[in-house]
Amino acid sequence: MILPIKNxxxxxxRPWVTLSIVAINSIxxxxxxxxxxxxxxxxxxxxxxxPFEITHAVDAVSPTPIPLxxxxxxxxxxxxxxxxxxxxxxxxxxxxxxxVDSMGHGMFVVFxxxxxxxxxxxxxxxxxxxxxxxxxxxxxxxGTLGAYLLLHPRARILTFVFLGIFWTxxxxxxxxxxLGWIALQIFNALGTQPGTGGVAWLAHVGxxxxxxILIGLFKYRSVSFFNASRKGPWGRN
Length: 237
Description:
Order of helices and strands: EHHHHHHHEEHH
Structural class: mainly alpha
Distance between the termini: 22 Å
Strand order of the largest sheet: 1-2-3
């Protein structure tokens, strides 16, 4: 197991947008948790993204208080548990701030939502009759990782490495960390049968490649690909 802890790539702007996304996800999770077990399940069914409902344009599982297509966005801010939430927000915080630097706050919001939407649609059309609600920021965060890989492949990532009884901290290039991450997502996606629930691995894959493709359209023209690091006034992530 490898787990990124922080990167050594300084940020240029104050990370207001990533902080806002972290806050919104945390507040939504806290709200859903306080509903209790039954309330949590009902909330997930109503506001989560259900592939069958999207592909058949019918509110078939549980009454949804918003137009069905908007659950593509609402689901991005919902999580199934604390570990699910924490993992997504950790990756967003480590890698998101430098991606914001490359395009600005407003464009990053559009980029983030677009990557999350494309990721969700990949998962939806891989299993269009599923009635299992999809929730989580994973697809949008994966898009951020795909963008980061192209922007800063040589940036050093402080990484926790655990191999059985052996563990250590090591600084690895982002290229190694992120290619390893997407390879694991693809491996798990290939080994998962549609309709079994659990982790939406294909959403991770779809989000990652969406971000890698879209970053060329969203980044400032003055920002070059394969830029390892830049000095900024706000310190390190």
